[in-house]
């Protein structure tokens, strides 16, 4: 990271920033093009590794790309605000962001699928206990991104 003065390394602060984010943008490699998808998410930390869960259709471009190349990049941000100045070069932006890389896969284990969906709902709705319609779960893809590299940054 070029601007070490903006780096966030405190685990509690990183968790707070992630918890405030409402969207995770996942970038896929597609034969020389980058395909970026904004997704709702939930997450947990397993054995010191961040694991993000997403949901969607079982078919489509992102599913095809996962099969071709499971290596992805991701980005999420919050607290964006413009810092105004008197001249153009005096303007800047406030923000908090998390970026990284990881491996994404489709979850096949039924219990992990329900766990991922529960984490997504907890993150987005703030409630932990959910029941899911079995038929809807069957037709829904749950994706798991296991983070291999991540950094967090903020600017006031």
Q: What do you see in this structure?
A:
This protein is α+β, with helices and mostly antiparallel strands. It is built from 4 helices and 7 strands. A 7-stranded antiparallel beta sheet has the order 2-1-5-6-7-4-3. A hairpin with a 2-residue loop joins strand 3 and strand 4 (49-57). The longest helix has 16 residues, at 110-125. It is globular, with a radius of gyration of 17 Å.
Detail the topology: elements first, then pairings.
Layout: H1 11-20, E1 24-30, E2 33-39, E3 42-46, E4 49-57, H2 61-68, E5 71-83, E6 92-106, H3 110-125, H4 134-138, E7 140-155
Antiparallel strand pairs: 1-2, 1-5, 3-4, 4-7, 5-6, 6-7
What string gives the helices and strands in order?
HEEEEHEEHHE
- What structural category arises from helix and sheet content? alpha+beta
Helix content: 25-40%
Low-pLDDT regions: none
Give me the number of helical elements. 4
The counted number of beta strands is: 7
Strand content: over 45%
Quick synopsis:
The chain is of the alpha+beta class and 156 residues long. The protein has helices at 11-20, 61-68, 110-125, 134-138, and strands at 24-30, 33-39, 42-46, 49-57, 71-83, 92-106, 140-155.
Write a concise keyword list for the protein shown above:
156 residues; seven-stranded antiparallel sheet; globular; 7 strands; alpha+beta
């Amino acid at each position: 990271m070029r601007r070490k003065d903006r780096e966030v390394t405190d685990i509690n602060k990183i968790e707070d920033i992630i918890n405030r984010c409402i969207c995770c943008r996942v970038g896929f490699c597609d034969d020389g093009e980058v395909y970026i998808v904004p997704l709702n998410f939930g997450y947990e930390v397993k054995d010191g590794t961040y694991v993000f869960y997403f949901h969607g259709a079982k078919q489509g471009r992102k599913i095809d790309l996962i099969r071709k190349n499971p290596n992805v990049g991701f980005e999420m941000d919050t607290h964006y605000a413009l810092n105004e100045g008197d001249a153009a070069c005096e303007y800047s932006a406030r923000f908090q962001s998390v970026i990284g890389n990881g491996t994404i896969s489709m979850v096949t284990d039924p219990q992990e699928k329900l766990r991922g969906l529960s984490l997504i709902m907890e993150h987005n709705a703030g409630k932990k206990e959910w029941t899911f319609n079995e038929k809807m779960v069957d037709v829904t893809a749950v994706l798991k991104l296991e983070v291999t590299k991540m950094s967090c940054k903020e600017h006031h």
